What we know:
Distance between the termini: 39 Å
Radius of gyration: 17 Å
Oligomer: single chain
Number of domains: 2
Number of strands: 6
GO molecular function: DNA binding
InterPro entries: CheY-like_superfamily, NreC/VraR/RcsB-like_REC, Sig_transdc_resp-reg_C-effctor, Sig_transdc_resp-reg_receiver, Tscrpt_reg_LuxR_C, WalR-like
Shape: globular
Domain HTH luxR-type: 150-215
GO biological process, one term: phosphorelay signal transduction system
CATH superfamily of the largest domain: Response regulator
Largest sheet: 6 strands, parallel
Strand content: 5-15%
Order of helices and strands: EHEHEHEHEHEHHHHH
Protein name: Two component transcriptional regulator, LuxR family
Amino acid sequence: MISVVLADDQALIRTAVSELVSHTGGFAVVGEASNGLEAVDVVRATHPDVVLMDIRMPVMDGLQATEAICADAQLSATRIIILTTFEDDEYVLRALRAGASGFLGKGTEAEALMAAIRTVNEGEALLSPKATRALIDRYLSPAEPAPHRVPDELTLLTEREREILLLVGSGLSNGEIAAGLVISPQTAKTHVNRMMSKLGVHDRAQLVIIAYESGLLVPGRS
């Protein structure tokens, strides 16, 4: 059973999503919140597998709530999907840096939303096509080159881990990485988890940001 918390300031949206999630086999809504502060409190009380988080909410917005949740070591198993109508590049980058695992528009079809919850619950990152384009366009734009902020912890990665970091940054899943390197999916997952631990990040989506901003991965170059 995948447990879900819904955070949105619009009651109608919470009700609609709650009905969808609750009536899908294998899922359960364990809490709801109408603002970011409530979301943090509800997540700390329920320890859900996945949070569907709106961005623009009163008291505390969804990005601040995401940062608070991802900074809490006791909530390290919780994954967050930003569910919003605002899919511009700045929101995408801030959400990923905050620790979000996924980013979907509110116009997403029901089947795609449920698939997204399953995907991030399994430890994969997920971005909608529009959000992905916004992220890539930001790094491809000559007016806004990647700042190349290299974490000191990058030196702790083994040669194999750096290789896998490039593949994660290219958008490959653990299964695809395993097939390409001729290793088991579990081994690929272990490498990814070790990298996240060494780099002090909450989610593999943040590994994508590090791959670009460190200069290890250059857009348009294989």
